[in-house]
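Title: Prediction job returns without error message
Component: structure pipeline
Severity: low
Priority: P3
Assignee: unassigned

Description:
Job completed but the reporter wants confirmation the result is attached to the right record. Sequence as submitted:
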Amino acid sequence: MSDLVFYTNPMSRGRIIRWMLEEVGQPYETVLVEWGKNDPAFLAVNPMGKVPAVKHGDAVVTECGAVCAYLADAFPEAGLAPPPGSRERAPYYRWLFFAAGPIEQAVGVAAMGVQPSADQEAMLGFGSMARVLNAMEGYLKDREFVAGDRFSAADLYLASHLAWGMQFGTLEKRPAFEAYAARHTARPAALRAAEIDDGIIAAQQQKQPEPAE
């Protein structure tokens, strides 16, 4: 039994954390959580009933951005976070929280078919989808990494959002986004993570009962 336990569903944001765990390189146990089941054991881990969640010893971490940041700090030997106090730590934090805040909010509001007015934009943390996209594009177009000259958890989290959003049409495709996401999602740990989750999905589909005639 590993002291690192990963609660997930392969058709969820848990795919982001699977990638992060593969980058960290530490042994971990996977617990699959079924949609719509209010399992008391999982609710004791996350009362929200949402995946992903990670339990590390007695510590429980939920929310993708928080899990990425926690794992990067808990396993510094993986080199997934700039040193505390370094110049690179500022953009690292900035883009982790940008993905967790403005990107998530903009996509969620758009998915509900809401078009904020100019006055409403002032009340929203993300302002508008155009502001979110333009801010990202302006920062990423001349950069390989968001913080310094090496890959970090912030790149993993941001690239995951961009890849997923462009695949399903919730984020606009722009050359800077496509190049950035393609570069990072081709990392060996990302490919391993995708293979694991895709394998779980395939196995679950094989177990589905045949429809009655």
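Comment from assignee: result matches the submitted record. The domain at 89-189 is CATH 1.20.1050.10 (Glutathione S-transferase Yfyf (Class Pi); Chain A, domain 2).
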